[in-house]
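Write out C-alpha coordinates for Arylsulfotransferase family protein.
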Amino acid sequence: MTANKPGTAHGDIFVAPFSADQMVGQTGALVNDNSGDPVWFRPLPSTNLQNADFKVQTYYDGRGGRGQPVLTWWQGTLALPPAYTNLPAGAPEPGGCYYIYDSHYRLLKTVFAHHGYYPDEHEFTLTRRGTALFIASRPVPMDLTPYGGPKNGAIENSEIQEVDLATGRLLYSWNALDHIDPADSEEAASSASSSGGVWDAFHINSVDEGPDGRLLISARNMWAIYDVTKKSGKVRYQIGGKKSDFTFGPNADFYWQHDARFRPGNRISMFDDGCCDLPDGAPEQRSHGLILSLDFRSHRATAVKTYYHQPPLESPTQGNTQALSNGNEFIGWGQSPYYSEYAGAGNTEGNASRNLLYDAKLPGSDISYRAFRNKWIGTPYYPPSAAARSDAGHNVVYASWNGSTQTAAWQVLAGSGPGSLSVVVRHAPRSGFETAVTTPEPGPYFKVRALDAKGRVIGDSRVVKLSG
Protein backbone atom coordinates (compact mmCIF):
# COMPACT_ATOMS: atom_id res chain seq x y z
CA MET A 1 0.00 0.00 0.00
CA THR A 2 1.15 3.53 -0.74
CA ALA A 3 -1.99 5.27 0.57
CA ASN A 4 -4.80 4.26 2.94
CA LYS A 5 -6.85 7.23 4.13
CA PRO A 6 -10.30 7.54 5.74
CA GLY A 7 -13.29 7.74 3.44
CA THR A 8 -12.87 4.62 1.32
CA ALA A 9 -15.99 2.68 0.43
CA HIS A 10 -16.88 -0.48 2.33
CA GLY A 11 -15.80 -3.76 0.82
CA ASP A 12 -12.78 -5.83 -0.12
CA ILE A 13 -10.59 -5.67 -3.23
CA PHE A 14 -10.92 -8.21 -6.04
CA VAL A 15 -8.03 -8.86 -8.42
CA ALA A 16 -6.84 -11.73 -10.61
CA PRO A 17 -3.04 -11.48 -10.70
CA PHE A 18 -1.04 -12.73 -13.66
CA SER A 19 2.04 -11.64 -15.56
CA ALA A 20 3.22 -11.56 -19.16
CA ASP A 21 6.75 -11.62 -17.81
CA GLN A 22 8.03 -13.25 -14.60
CA MET A 23 5.13 -14.04 -12.26
CA VAL A 24 5.62 -13.34 -8.55
CA GLY A 25 3.58 -15.95 -6.68
CA GLN A 26 0.65 -17.72 -8.32
CA THR A 27 -2.02 -16.73 -10.79
CA GLY A 28 -5.61 -17.02 -9.62
CA ALA A 29 -8.55 -15.16 -8.09
CA LEU A 30 -7.61 -13.07 -5.04
CA VAL A 31 -9.64 -11.08 -2.49
CA ASN A 32 -7.66 -8.65 -0.32
CA ASP A 33 -8.72 -6.38 2.51
CA ASN A 34 -7.58 -2.75 2.80
CA SER A 35 -4.44 -3.75 4.69
CA GLY A 36 -3.36 -5.99 1.82
CA ASP A 37 -4.07 -9.20 3.72
CA PRO A 38 -5.66 -12.02 1.69
CA VAL A 39 -9.30 -12.84 2.43
CA TRP A 40 -9.68 -15.60 -0.16
CA PHE A 41 -7.33 -16.99 -2.75
CA ARG A 42 -8.02 -19.63 -5.37
CA PRO A 43 -4.63 -20.41 -6.93
CA LEU A 44 -4.21 -21.89 -10.39
CA PRO A 45 -1.82 -24.77 -11.10
CA SER A 46 0.16 -23.01 -13.86
CA THR A 47 1.20 -19.42 -14.53
CA ASN A 48 0.08 -19.99 -18.16
CA LEU A 49 -3.49 -20.27 -16.84
CA GLN A 50 -5.23 -17.02 -15.91
CA ASN A 51 -8.37 -15.57 -14.36
CA ALA A 52 -9.87 -12.22 -15.35
CA ASP A 53 -12.85 -9.95 -14.62
CA PHE A 54 -13.07 -11.37 -11.07
CA LYS A 55 -15.85 -9.63 -9.13
CA VAL A 56 -19.03 -9.91 -7.06
CA GLN A 57 -22.35 -10.04 -8.92
CA THR A 58 -25.95 -11.03 -8.16
CA TYR A 59 -27.19 -14.32 -9.55
CA TYR A 60 -30.87 -14.47 -10.49
CA ASP A 61 -32.64 -17.68 -11.38
CA GLY A 62 -34.95 -15.95 -13.86
CA ARG A 63 -38.07 -16.61 -11.77
CA GLY A 64 -38.32 -13.19 -10.15
CA GLY A 65 -36.50 -13.97 -6.90
CA ARG A 66 -34.23 -11.59 -4.99
CA GLY A 67 -31.04 -13.15 -6.25
CA GLN A 68 -27.94 -14.19 -4.35
CA PRO A 69 -24.44 -12.68 -4.24
CA VAL A 70 -21.89 -14.72 -6.19
CA LEU A 71 -18.32 -14.58 -7.41
CA THR A 72 -17.74 -14.67 -11.17
CA TRP A 73 -14.66 -14.80 -13.36
CA TRP A 74 -13.19 -15.98 -16.65
CA GLN A 75 -10.63 -18.76 -16.69
CA GLY A 76 -8.40 -19.81 -19.55
CA THR A 77 -5.17 -19.08 -21.36
CA LEU A 78 -4.26 -15.92 -23.24
CA ALA A 79 -2.10 -15.54 -26.32
CA LEU A 80 0.87 -13.96 -24.58
CA PRO A 81 4.27 -14.15 -26.31
CA PRO A 82 6.54 -16.02 -26.15
CA ALA A 83 4.32 -18.92 -25.03
CA TYR A 84 1.56 -18.23 -27.58
CA THR A 85 1.98 -16.43 -30.89
CA ASN A 86 -0.86 -17.98 -32.92
CA LEU A 87 -3.32 -15.19 -32.05
CA PRO A 88 -3.03 -11.45 -31.37
CA ALA A 89 -1.50 -10.68 -27.98
CA GLY A 90 -4.12 -10.88 -25.24
CA ALA A 91 -6.66 -12.84 -27.28
CA PRO A 92 -8.29 -15.83 -25.56
CA GLU A 93 -7.09 -19.29 -26.52
CA PRO A 94 -9.66 -22.06 -27.07
CA GLY A 95 -10.82 -23.89 -23.95
CA GLY A 96 -11.78 -21.02 -21.65
CA CYS A 97 -15.01 -20.65 -19.70
CA TYR A 98 -16.78 -18.53 -17.08
CA TYR A 99 -17.38 -19.65 -13.49
CA ILE A 100 -20.09 -18.65 -11.01
CA TYR A 101 -19.41 -19.52 -7.35
CA ASP A 102 -21.78 -19.09 -4.41
CA SER A 103 -20.95 -17.50 -1.04
CA HIS A 104 -19.80 -20.88 0.29
CA TYR A 105 -17.25 -21.10 -2.57
CA ARG A 106 -19.11 -23.87 -4.35
CA LEU A 107 -19.44 -23.96 -8.13
CA LEU A 108 -22.93 -22.96 -9.26
CA LYS A 109 -22.54 -22.66 -13.02
CA THR A 110 -20.00 -23.02 -15.79
CA VAL A 111 -20.80 -20.94 -18.87
CA PHE A 112 -19.52 -21.43 -22.42
CA ALA A 113 -19.78 -19.50 -25.68
CA HIS A 114 -21.66 -20.51 -28.84
CA HIS A 115 -21.11 -20.33 -32.63
CA GLY A 116 -17.60 -21.77 -32.30
CA TYR A 117 -16.41 -18.66 -30.46
CA TYR A 118 -14.07 -18.71 -27.45
CA PRO A 119 -15.18 -17.24 -24.11
CA ASP A 120 -13.35 -13.93 -23.85
CA GLU A 121 -11.67 -12.61 -20.70
CA HIS A 122 -12.92 -9.07 -21.18
CA GLU A 123 -16.51 -9.25 -19.95
CA PHE A 124 -18.97 -11.49 -18.11
CA THR A 125 -22.10 -9.81 -16.71
CA LEU A 126 -25.14 -11.38 -15.03
CA THR A 127 -28.57 -9.87 -15.66
CA ARG A 128 -31.76 -9.77 -13.64
CA ARG A 129 -33.32 -11.98 -16.35
CA GLY A 130 -31.30 -14.99 -15.27
CA THR A 131 -28.93 -14.62 -18.21
CA ALA A 132 -25.26 -13.87 -18.78
CA LEU A 133 -24.02 -11.24 -21.23
CA PHE A 134 -20.43 -11.62 -22.40
CA ILE A 135 -17.91 -11.18 -25.21
CA ALA A 136 -16.71 -14.14 -27.28
CA SER A 137 -13.95 -14.16 -29.88
CA ARG A 138 -12.48 -16.27 -32.70
CA PRO A 139 -10.48 -15.82 -35.90
CA VAL A 140 -12.60 -15.54 -39.06
CA PRO A 141 -10.66 -16.39 -42.26
CA MET A 142 -10.47 -13.42 -44.63
CA ASP A 143 -8.41 -11.96 -47.43
CA LEU A 144 -6.70 -9.03 -45.72
CA THR A 145 -4.93 -7.62 -48.77
CA PRO A 146 -7.49 -4.76 -49.13
CA TYR A 147 -6.38 -3.63 -45.66
CA GLY A 148 -2.65 -4.16 -46.11
CA GLY A 149 -2.48 -7.62 -44.58
CA PRO A 150 -1.92 -11.19 -45.85
CA LYS A 151 -4.20 -12.82 -48.42
CA ASN A 152 -4.68 -15.98 -46.37
CA GLY A 153 -5.31 -14.12 -43.15
CA ALA A 154 -8.09 -13.82 -40.60
CA ILE A 155 -9.77 -11.20 -38.46
CA GLU A 156 -10.10 -11.73 -34.74
CA ASN A 157 -13.84 -11.19 -34.64
CA SER A 158 -15.95 -10.58 -31.55
CA GLU A 159 -19.55 -11.42 -30.70
CA ILE A 160 -21.67 -10.13 -27.88
CA GLN A 161 -23.56 -13.21 -26.67
CA GLU A 162 -26.33 -13.66 -24.12
CA VAL A 163 -27.16 -17.11 -22.77
CA ASP A 164 -29.85 -18.44 -20.46
CA LEU A 165 -28.12 -19.62 -17.27
CA ALA A 166 -30.68 -22.32 -16.55
CA THR A 167 -30.37 -24.04 -19.94
CA GLY A 168 -27.19 -22.66 -21.50
CA ARG A 169 -29.22 -21.72 -24.59
CA LEU A 170 -28.03 -18.80 -26.73
CA LEU A 171 -30.63 -16.01 -26.65
CA TYR A 172 -28.87 -13.14 -28.42
CA SER A 173 -25.75 -12.36 -30.43
CA TRP A 174 -24.25 -9.25 -32.03
CA ASN A 175 -21.34 -9.63 -34.41
CA ALA A 176 -18.70 -6.91 -34.80
CA LEU A 177 -17.96 -7.72 -38.46
CA ASP A 178 -21.62 -7.19 -39.33
CA HIS A 179 -21.67 -3.65 -37.93
CA ILE A 180 -18.15 -2.16 -37.83
CA ASP A 181 -15.88 -1.48 -40.80
CA PRO A 182 -12.43 -2.99 -40.10
CA ALA A 183 -10.90 -0.36 -42.39
CA ASP A 184 -11.39 2.12 -39.56
CA SER A 185 -9.04 0.20 -37.25
CA GLU A 186 -6.07 1.93 -35.68
CA GLU A 187 -4.25 -1.41 -35.54
CA ALA A 188 -2.40 -1.99 -38.82
CA ALA A 189 -3.42 -5.14 -40.69
CA SER A 190 0.29 -5.80 -41.24
CA SER A 191 0.52 -6.64 -37.52
CA ALA A 192 -1.08 -10.00 -38.41
CA SER A 193 2.38 -11.19 -39.50
CA SER A 194 3.35 -11.57 -35.82
CA SER A 195 0.18 -13.43 -34.74
CA GLY A 196 -0.33 -16.32 -37.11
CA GLY A 197 -1.95 -14.17 -39.79
CA VAL A 198 -4.75 -12.99 -37.48
CA TRP A 199 -5.53 -9.25 -37.43
CA ASP A 200 -6.95 -7.80 -34.23
CA ALA A 201 -8.94 -5.08 -36.00
CA PHE A 202 -11.63 -4.50 -33.35
CA HIS A 203 -10.53 -5.80 -29.93
CA ILE A 204 -13.95 -5.50 -28.31
CA ASN A 205 -13.21 -5.24 -24.58
CA SER A 206 -16.42 -4.26 -22.78
CA VAL A 207 -20.18 -4.32 -23.12
CA ASP A 208 -22.63 -2.60 -20.79
CA GLU A 209 -26.42 -2.89 -20.97
CA GLY A 210 -28.49 0.21 -20.32
CA PRO A 211 -31.95 0.22 -18.73
CA ASP A 212 -33.59 0.99 -22.09
CA GLY A 213 -32.23 -1.99 -24.00
CA ARG A 214 -29.13 -0.30 -25.40
CA LEU A 215 -25.62 -1.72 -25.40
CA LEU A 216 -22.47 0.33 -24.89
CA ILE A 217 -19.63 -1.49 -26.65
CA SER A 218 -15.96 -0.52 -26.46
CA ALA A 219 -13.62 -1.44 -29.33
CA ARG A 220 -10.07 -0.72 -28.18
CA ASN A 221 -8.36 -0.91 -31.55
CA MET A 222 -10.96 1.35 -33.18
CA TRP A 223 -10.44 4.01 -30.47
CA ALA A 224 -14.24 4.04 -30.41
CA ILE A 225 -17.28 3.35 -28.25
CA TYR A 226 -20.58 2.36 -29.87
CA ASP A 227 -24.12 2.83 -28.60
CA VAL A 228 -26.09 -0.07 -30.09
CA THR A 229 -29.82 -0.72 -30.15
CA LYS A 230 -29.94 -4.24 -28.81
CA LYS A 231 -33.07 -5.35 -30.64
CA SER A 232 -32.01 -4.26 -34.13
CA GLY A 233 -28.25 -4.43 -33.63
CA LYS A 234 -27.80 -1.05 -35.31
CA VAL A 235 -25.22 1.45 -34.11
CA ARG A 236 -27.09 4.53 -32.87
CA TYR A 237 -23.97 6.63 -32.51
CA GLN A 238 -20.19 6.32 -32.28
CA ILE A 239 -17.94 8.17 -29.84
CA GLY A 240 -14.33 8.45 -30.94
CA GLY A 241 -12.52 6.76 -33.78
CA LYS A 242 -12.40 7.71 -37.46
CA LYS A 243 -16.16 8.19 -37.83
CA SER A 244 -17.06 9.76 -34.51
CA ASP A 245 -20.51 11.31 -34.21
CA PHE A 246 -19.14 13.54 -31.44
CA THR A 247 -16.50 16.23 -31.24
CA PHE A 248 -14.44 16.54 -28.09
CA GLY A 249 -13.82 19.26 -25.55
CA PRO A 250 -10.48 19.70 -23.74
CA ASN A 251 -9.10 16.44 -22.29
CA ALA A 252 -12.14 14.49 -23.55
CA ASP A 253 -10.57 12.51 -26.38
CA PHE A 254 -9.35 8.98 -25.64
CA TYR A 255 -7.20 6.22 -27.16
CA TRP A 256 -6.98 2.42 -26.68
CA GLN A 257 -9.78 2.70 -24.08
CA HIS A 258 -11.31 -0.01 -21.87
CA ASP A 259 -14.38 -0.54 -19.68
CA ALA A 260 -16.99 1.82 -21.19
CA ARG A 261 -20.02 2.13 -18.85
CA PHE A 262 -23.30 3.99 -18.90
CA ARG A 263 -23.56 6.60 -16.14
CA PRO A 264 -26.67 8.59 -15.12
CA GLY A 265 -27.48 11.83 -16.92
CA ASN A 266 -26.09 11.21 -20.42
CA ARG A 267 -22.67 10.37 -19.07
CA ILE A 268 -20.33 7.49 -19.75
CA SER A 269 -17.16 6.37 -17.99
CA MET A 270 -14.13 4.47 -19.17
CA PHE A 271 -10.49 3.77 -18.48
CA ASP A 272 -8.49 5.80 -21.01
CA ASP A 273 -5.24 3.90 -21.55
CA GLY A 274 -4.20 6.94 -23.57
CA CYS A 275 -0.58 6.09 -24.12
CA CYS A 276 1.33 4.67 -27.04
CA ASP A 277 1.11 5.20 -30.82
CA LEU A 278 -1.03 8.32 -30.68
CA PRO A 279 -2.09 10.22 -33.82
CA ASP A 280 0.21 12.85 -35.27
CA GLY A 281 -0.08 16.09 -33.34
CA ALA A 282 -1.85 14.56 -30.34
CA PRO A 283 -0.28 15.56 -27.02
CA GLU A 284 1.31 12.84 -24.91
CA GLN A 285 -1.29 11.30 -22.60
CA ARG A 286 -1.16 9.50 -19.29
CA SER A 287 -3.55 6.67 -18.48
CA HIS A 288 -6.50 7.76 -16.33
CA GLY A 289 -10.11 7.20 -15.40
CA LEU A 290 -12.44 9.37 -17.46
CA ILE A 291 -16.10 10.42 -17.20
CA LEU A 292 -17.63 12.15 -20.23
CA SER A 293 -20.84 14.13 -20.53
CA LEU A 294 -22.56 13.71 -23.92
CA ASP A 295 -24.52 16.64 -25.38
CA PHE A 296 -26.82 15.12 -27.99
CA ARG A 297 -27.85 18.48 -29.42
CA SER A 298 -24.36 19.71 -30.22
CA HIS A 299 -22.91 16.18 -30.46
CA ARG A 300 -20.04 17.20 -28.23
CA ALA A 301 -18.34 15.15 -25.51
CA THR A 302 -17.00 17.00 -22.47
CA ALA A 303 -14.67 15.67 -19.78
CA VAL A 304 -16.41 16.23 -16.46
CA LYS A 305 -14.13 14.17 -14.19
CA THR A 306 -10.69 12.63 -14.53
CA TYR A 307 -8.67 10.35 -12.26
CA TYR A 308 -4.88 10.37 -12.68
CA HIS A 309 -2.17 8.55 -10.74
CA GLN A 310 0.89 9.87 -8.97
CA PRO A 311 3.46 8.86 -10.16
CA PRO A 312 2.07 9.10 -13.71
CA LEU A 313 1.26 5.77 -15.36
CA GLU A 314 1.23 4.61 -18.95
CA SER A 315 -0.85 1.45 -19.36
CA PRO A 316 -0.88 0.23 -22.96
CA THR A 317 -3.63 -2.31 -22.21
CA GLN A 318 -6.37 -3.29 -19.73
CA GLY A 319 -7.80 -1.25 -16.83
CA ASN A 320 -11.20 -0.18 -15.48
CA THR A 321 -13.08 2.64 -13.73
CA GLN A 322 -15.65 1.47 -11.17
CA ALA A 323 -18.38 3.64 -9.63
CA LEU A 324 -18.68 2.93 -5.89
CA SER A 325 -21.86 3.24 -3.82
CA ASN A 326 -20.52 6.17 -1.75
CA GLY A 327 -19.67 8.25 -4.82
CA ASN A 328 -15.99 7.30 -4.93
CA GLU A 329 -14.28 5.81 -7.99
CA PHE A 330 -12.07 2.71 -7.97
CA ILE A 331 -9.43 2.48 -10.70
CA GLY A 332 -7.69 -0.68 -11.85
CA TRP A 333 -4.60 0.42 -13.77
CA GLY A 334 -4.43 -2.58 -16.06
CA GLN A 335 -0.94 -3.20 -17.40
CA SER A 336 0.45 -1.00 -14.63
CA PRO A 337 0.47 -2.99 -11.36
CA TYR A 338 -1.63 -0.56 -9.27
CA TYR A 339 -5.21 -0.14 -8.07
CA SER A 340 -6.54 3.02 -6.44
CA GLU A 341 -9.61 4.67 -4.93
CA TYR A 342 -10.46 8.36 -5.26
CA ALA A 343 -13.05 10.68 -3.82
CA GLY A 344 -15.64 11.27 -6.51
CA ALA A 345 -14.46 14.73 -7.51
CA GLY A 346 -11.27 13.26 -8.96
CA ASN A 347 -8.22 15.28 -9.94
CA THR A 348 -6.21 16.61 -12.87
CA GLU A 349 -3.02 15.47 -14.53
CA GLY A 350 -1.20 18.36 -12.90
CA ASN A 351 -2.54 17.51 -9.42
CA ALA A 352 -2.80 13.74 -9.56
CA SER A 353 -2.51 13.13 -5.81
CA ARG A 354 -5.63 15.18 -5.03
CA ASN A 355 -8.57 13.14 -3.70
CA LEU A 356 -6.51 9.93 -3.59
CA LEU A 357 -7.78 7.79 -0.71
CA TYR A 358 -6.27 4.37 -1.35
CA ASP A 359 -3.44 3.06 -3.49
CA ALA A 360 -1.70 -0.31 -3.68
CA LYS A 361 0.81 -2.00 -5.95
CA LEU A 362 1.08 -5.65 -6.94
CA PRO A 363 4.55 -7.22 -6.65
CA GLY A 364 7.05 -7.35 -9.50
CA SER A 365 5.48 -7.37 -12.95
CA ASP A 366 2.19 -8.87 -11.69
CA ILE A 367 -0.91 -7.17 -13.07
CA SER A 368 -4.69 -7.63 -12.99
CA TYR A 369 -6.88 -7.07 -16.05
CA ARG A 370 -9.42 -5.26 -13.88
CA ALA A 371 -9.64 -4.48 -10.16
CA PHE A 372 -12.82 -3.97 -8.13
CA ARG A 373 -13.97 -3.03 -4.66
CA ASN A 374 -17.00 -5.12 -3.70
CA LYS A 375 -18.91 -5.99 -0.55
CA TRP A 376 -18.73 -9.72 0.10
CA ILE A 377 -19.72 -12.16 2.84
CA GLY A 378 -17.99 -15.50 2.49
CA THR A 379 -18.90 -18.56 4.59
CA PRO A 380 -16.79 -21.47 3.32
CA TYR A 381 -18.31 -24.94 3.04
CA TYR A 382 -14.94 -26.39 4.09
CA PRO A 383 -13.47 -26.18 7.63
CA PRO A 384 -10.78 -23.84 8.98
CA SER A 385 -7.13 -24.91 8.76
CA ALA A 386 -4.78 -25.45 11.70
CA ALA A 387 -1.12 -26.26 12.22
CA ALA A 388 0.97 -26.55 15.39
CA ARG A 389 4.70 -26.54 15.91
CA SER A 390 7.25 -26.15 18.69
CA ASP A 391 9.19 -22.90 18.49
CA ALA A 392 11.90 -21.85 20.99
CA GLY A 393 10.38 -23.81 23.85
CA HIS A 394 6.81 -22.71 23.15
CA ASN A 395 4.02 -24.28 21.16
CA VAL A 396 2.51 -22.10 18.45
CA VAL A 397 -0.86 -22.88 16.87
CA TYR A 398 -1.63 -21.35 13.47
CA ALA A 399 -5.24 -20.74 12.47
CA SER A 400 -6.67 -19.64 9.11
CA TRP A 401 -9.85 -20.03 7.11
CA ASN A 402 -9.50 -19.21 3.45
CA GLY A 403 -12.48 -17.09 2.40
CA SER A 404 -14.17 -16.56 5.77
CA THR A 405 -15.21 -12.94 6.18
CA GLN A 406 -17.04 -13.56 9.48
CA THR A 407 -14.17 -14.86 11.59
CA ALA A 408 -13.27 -12.32 14.28
CA ALA A 409 -11.32 -14.50 16.73
CA TRP A 410 -10.07 -18.03 17.41
CA GLN A 411 -10.28 -20.59 20.18
CA VAL A 412 -7.51 -23.14 20.63
CA LEU A 413 -8.16 -26.64 21.96
CA ALA A 414 -5.43 -29.02 23.13
CA GLY A 415 -5.08 -32.47 24.63
CA SER A 416 -2.97 -35.59 24.99
CA GLY A 417 -5.12 -37.47 22.49
CA PRO A 418 -7.20 -36.53 19.43
CA GLY A 419 -10.40 -37.41 21.30
CA SER A 420 -9.63 -35.61 24.56
CA LEU A 421 -9.30 -31.94 23.65
CA SER A 422 -10.34 -29.00 25.81
CA VAL A 423 -10.26 -25.24 25.33
CA VAL A 424 -6.90 -23.74 26.35
CA VAL A 425 -7.23 -20.32 24.64
CA ARG A 426 -10.76 -18.92 24.71
CA HIS A 427 -10.40 -15.80 22.56
CA ALA A 428 -7.45 -14.88 20.35
CA PRO A 429 -8.37 -11.98 18.02
CA ARG A 430 -7.90 -12.68 14.33
CA SER A 431 -4.69 -10.93 13.27
CA GLY A 432 -4.70 -11.39 9.51
CA PHE A 433 -5.12 -14.24 7.07
CA GLU A 434 -3.24 -16.52 9.47
CA THR A 435 -3.29 -15.99 13.24
CA ALA A 436 -0.45 -17.39 15.37
CA VAL A 437 -1.39 -18.24 18.98
CA THR A 438 1.31 -19.15 21.50
CA THR A 439 0.30 -21.56 24.30
CA PRO A 440 2.19 -23.35 27.12
CA GLU A 441 -0.05 -26.41 26.67
CA PRO A 442 2.02 -29.46 25.61
CA GLY A 443 -0.69 -31.03 23.44
CA PRO A 444 0.53 -32.74 21.35
CA TYR A 445 -2.91 -32.62 19.67
CA PHE A 446 -4.57 -29.31 18.77
CA LYS A 447 -7.46 -27.85 16.84
CA VAL A 448 -8.96 -24.39 16.39
CA ARG A 449 -12.47 -22.97 16.37
CA ALA A 450 -13.47 -19.86 14.45
CA LEU A 451 -15.56 -17.30 16.38
CA ASP A 452 -17.70 -14.56 14.87
CA ALA A 453 -17.98 -11.01 16.24
CA LYS A 454 -20.52 -12.19 18.85
CA GLY A 455 -18.27 -14.99 20.08
CA ARG A 456 -20.29 -17.76 18.44
CA VAL A 457 -18.48 -20.82 17.05
CA ILE A 458 -18.82 -20.84 13.26
CA GLY A 459 -16.27 -23.48 12.29
CA ASP A 460 -14.01 -26.24 13.66
CA SER A 461 -10.73 -27.35 12.14
CA ARG A 462 -9.51 -30.90 11.93
CA VAL A 463 -7.25 -32.16 14.75
CA VAL A 464 -3.53 -31.69 14.06
CA LYS A 465 -0.46 -33.02 15.81
CA LEU A 466 2.45 -30.91 17.02
CA SER A 467 5.42 -30.91 14.64
CA GLY A 468 9.01 -30.10 15.52
